[in-house]
Amino acid sequence: MATIEILGIEKRYGDTSVLKNVSLSVEDGEFLTLVGPSGCGKSTLLRIIAGLEAPDAGALRIADRDVAKDRPKQRNVAMVFQSYALYPHLTVLDNIVMPLRMRRLTAAQRFPLLGRWMPGTRRIEREIRAEAEQVASILGVEPLLARKPGQLSGGQRQRVALGRAMVRQPAVFLMDEPLSNLDAKLRVQMRSEIMALHRQIGATFVYVTHDQAEAMTMSDRVAVMMEGELLQVAAPEQLYSDPDDLRVAEMIGSPQINAVPVHALNRQLCLAWQLSQDTAVAAFRPENAIITRPADAMLNGTVAVSEHLGADVFVHVRLDGDAGTIVIRTDRTSPRHTAGTAVGVSVEGRHVLRFDAKKKRCRPSQDHGALVA
Amino acid sequence: MTPLSLGTKGKVLRCVILSVTALFALLPFMWMLSLSIKTTPEIYQAHFHILPESFAGFDNYRVVFASAPMLRFLLNGVLVCAAIFMVQLLVCIPCAYALAKLRFRGRDTLFSAVLIALLIPPQVLSIPHFVLLYYAQLIDSYGALILPWIFSAFGVFLLRQFFSTIPDELIQAAQLDGMSEADIIWRVMIPMSAPAIASFGIFSLVSHWNDLFWPLIVLRRAELATPALGILLFRDDETGRQFGPLMAATATIVAPLILAFLLAQRRFIDGLTIHSVK
Amino acid sequence: MTALSSPRNAISAAGARPASASKQRGDRRGWLYSAPAVVTMGVLLFGPLLAVMLFSLTDWQLGQEQFSFIGARNFQELFADTVFWKSLRNTFLYVLLVVPGTVILGLIVAVLLESSNELKGLYRTAHFIPVMAATSAMAIVWGTMLHPTIGLFNHILYGLGYSGVSWLRDEHTALLALVLIGIWQGFGYAMVLFIAGLKAIPQNLYDAAEIDGADSVMDRMRLVVLPMIGPVLMFVMVVTAVRAFSVFDTVRVLTAGGPNYSTDVLLYRLNTESFDYLRTGYGAALTVVFLGIVIAITLLQAKIMDRRVHYS
């Protein structure tokens, strides 16, 4: 049973704090994705789980065992790297069997040239080879076993890297942006293959990506990180509809959520949207706004541009006053809005998410407090 | 992550081993400096100390500069190396430009010839070079030290590789600006290749400053000697029998390049290792 | 090779000239610019190369008006000469000791140097300084260190209670002393080449090796470091070998080939025969042998490197 417990992890490089008091627990068999912009610390966290880097503070337990002092070899984790990190001088088969060799053969049995004459080496090598071939057949790379990584395509290398991780049957799979070196089409295909793999082997997966679409489609839960902090950990749907933090709301979903500063709204609207006093930003998704005639709405603006993307039309509306520009998603059956037209925008109160000045969500319990008088 | 992942013990061991090898590398220099400030009787003492009991540094170095044309040797070195490098540039740059940026019949053959030339060790050519200079009556002259080296296959190769990386668009833009081809070489190619030219210069400087084989063959007169030969002449001279002055002389000979290296380490290391980029 | 090189195309694109004329113009310009290099390369490189091969087939002695072709007689004489064989043997022995010594020491220092940042720059500088120093001058210094009475080595031996050794005057130790100097001067150079090779190893590979469980020194060296610097290793070996085959300065300065020819090497022989005895033809034959060996090493390298093209 491989749960992962991360408690108060801190990591600094010189003066910069890369991870600030990060706590997270991953359930056994769960597919958890760490998502965030580059430099947010997600890869560092993954490397700490793997044992490639040591945290400055905090505790780490894998399968209920404190692994803080363990080397990667002792942690029973496998890792897939962005650049695959295959040994270029070894064949695909040798790449896949390497983790098993390192674990099952003694140092003497691995000794160059002589090792193969040590008692037991041949038998173990045979077993290892059989297991590697089985993994290769699952991944469909059996015909490639004799080749070197340099002769493979990106997708094939990706599969070999997966095979090297799978062959050990680790309790925990760590993946560091494994798809970002692939082209768009292959990436979508590999996404579903990795998901299928996860279902099949049932191990715990921790997956790092900067691509929110990847995070949303693949994971049981998503952990959003920014500037070394863990902002929210939740299922993808919840992350979208019920974000804890404005930065999470802004990161998930395309086009981005519309965030309107409260000071730019009139009082009527504040009342209608039930904005509490501590609300600094009111946010709503592009699909939840409706364009109306100017007279019918409490939010008014001018169409800046209409983007026609086939089925969808994104209407950019520059709000009156100091409220910025918002995007509204309509479909092509709705009337055209040419640039310069004055329009009204209507959003139901239940679709509005409220955030305070620190970008944290104002939860309904607080919303019941004093309304803007 | 590094080639070895070292713990605290490993780091200490690393420092110990590297200190030993560094000592091995520097030992002759320490020995040289130590002897160069000692008196002859002290050098012959049964017990060795790094620092002298009576400081004879001034005497030893003064004797060196008084009795031998040390400054002359150094000056010869500068003169010969500078002349070689200047002429090498004049010969190599236009050819490298043509090989990198012009299309002409025979270009690939010419480049292959340069690559073959790279493989020929210079000592192989010493007999015919000597014969050429002998019949040109240039033996025992600066010309004899300089002429054989004015073509450098390495220079052509290095500069061609570097010129090739300069985008053609840049040259076309320069043409549209009204630059002639000479302008382009002078104002675009050369400034942009400064690092490569510097590397080549250091390579050339170090090889000819330290060369003993060729000056030994073509020089008879001591006043033309370059440093590497000069120190040998000094040793065979009367004052050179004394170890103190002899070490002072060797220190004088090796100091300029080592000081230059200490001032511009990156450049020197690049210059001397750049042919590994092949 | 984007041969769509610049100026000519720009000119013809401007529509000024018919294609054939501009092609001729391009040819002319190419050769015009290359002319100084072509002439000097011919006169100073390929001409002499040809000449030395021709000389090797004659009985010419420099300064004489006449000579005649004597076929392979110089080579026959060479191969019958015990001193030549001795110098060839010494040269190979020197190379066989200097190359592994330099390469292994250089590699160890480079790997240790790159394994931590402490004092890294200082160590690198210290190890590289011997490369910069003129061999002839430093050979003189080594001569004093190996000196029977005042030398450092004998000081140490005396201190340990042994009797001294005449390092450079003793047939058994003279060549070894030269080997030591050769390694001393070359290992810093090997080190910087290895450092460049080590820096080019992708970080992920070390991580992957660690995750795979290869965390001992031997496993990391075997799984990552050695295979990844294979090409550099090859290059360093060849460069060191060619330099070692060209050993001359230390022999000339310290032993003059002695005692009893125990340090006589190819280039020293070449120098003596050609320029002391002025036996041009014979010296040329020696030169051809030397050239043959150096070219053979280079071709061997090319062949081995070709086999490894499958590296990604």
Structural class by helix and strand composition of chain C: mainly alpha
Most extensive chain interface and residues per partner: B-C, 103 and 113 residues
- CATH topology call of the largest domain in chain C: MetI-like fold
Count up the helices of chain C.
Answer: 14
DSSP helix count of chain A? 10
Compute the average pLDDT of chain A. Answer: 86
CATH class term of the largest domain in chain C: Mainly Alpha
- For this structure, the quaternary state is heterotrimer
**What is the number of beta strands of chain A?**
18
% residues in beta strands of chain A:
25-35%
Helical content band of chain A: 25-40%
Number of discrete domains of chain A: 2
On the 0-100 scale, what is the average pLDDT of chain C?
Answer: 84
The CATH architecture assignment of the largest domain in chain C turns out to be Orthogonal Bundle
Helices and strands in order:
The complex is a heterotrimer of chains A (373), B (278) and C (312).
Chain A: E1 4-13, E2 16-26, E3 31-35, H1 42-50, E4 57-62, E5 65-66, E6 77-80, H2 92-104, H3 121-139, H4 154-166, E7 172-176, H5 184-201, E8 204-209, H6 212-218, E9 221-226, E10 229-234, H7 236-241, H8 246-251, E11 258-261, H9 267-272, E12 279-284, E13 289-292, E14 299-309, E15 312-319, E16 325-331, E17 342-347, E18 353-356, H10 364-367
Parallel strand pairs in A: 3-8, 3-9, 6-7, 7-8
Antiparallel strand pairs in A: 1-2, 1-4, 4-5, 9-10, 11-12, 12-18, 13-17, 14-15, 14-17, 15-16
Chain B: H1 8-36, H2 40-43, H3 57-67, H4 70-101, H5 107-118, H6 126-135, H7 142-146, H8 153-164, H9 168-176, H10 181-192, H11 194-209, H12 213-218, H13 227-236, H14 243-263, H15 265-273
Chain C: H1 6-13, H2 19-55, H3 73-80, H4 82-114, H5 120-132, H6 135-145, H7 152-159, H8 174-199, H9 203-212, H10 217-228, H11 230-245, H12 249-255, H13 266-276, H14 280-306
Helix pairs in contact in C: 2-14, 3-14, 4-8, 4-11, 5-8, 6-12, 8-11, 9-10, 11-14, 13-14
